Amino acid sequence: MNCCCGNLARVRTSWMKENPRRRFLSCVNRDGGCRFFEWEDSPLCARSRVIIPWLLRRLNALERENTRLVRRNEIYKARKMKYDYGVMLEGEDNL
């Protein structure tokens, strides 16, 4: 579909609280002043407008927690390697 200035309209996704994950068309020249806008999807039901943002917040929280745990695990692995390496050297000195 072409917009009012003749450019091909681009499908985008809304991440606004009122319309989470709802797709719409807009002009690729919107920074140049074209204000073409048209919803591609039908409106979400009230329950979806509540559930989807909650699920996105939950997903973001779990991703942050996963990142924190991966970093913590890397620190523990590094400490264990240091400990194992130190123990190995002490054992070799006693031979």
In words, what does this structure look like?
By secondary structure, the chain is α+β, with helices and mostly antiparallel strands. The protein folds into 2 domains: 1-44, no CATH class; 45-95. 51% of the residues lie in helices and 14% in strands. It is built from 1 helix and 3 strands; from the N terminus they run E-E-E-H. The chain has one helix spanning 46-93; strands spanning 9-13, 23-27, 37-39. Strands 1-2-3 form a 3-stranded antiparallel beta sheet, with no helix packed on it. The longest helix is centred in the C-terminal third of the chain and has 48 residues, at 46-93. The protein is elongated and about 70 Å long. The termini are far apart. InterPro entries: Znf_GRF.
Content-based structural category? alpha+beta
The secondary-structure element order is: EEEH
Sheet having the most strands: 3 strands, antiparallel
Mean pLDDT across residues: 83
| Coarse morphology | elongated
Unreliable spans: none
For the largest sheet, list the strands in their spatial order. 1-2-3
Helices, by number, come to: 1
Overall number of structural domains: 2
Distance between the termini: 79 Å
Spatial extent as radius of gyration: 26 Å
- The level of helicity is 40-55%
What fraction of the residues are assigned to beta strands by DSSP? 5-15%
Number of E-type strands: 3
Please give a handful of descriptors for the protein shown.
single chain; 95 residues; alpha+beta; 3-stranded antiparallel beta sheet; 1 helix; elongated; Znf_GRF; zinc
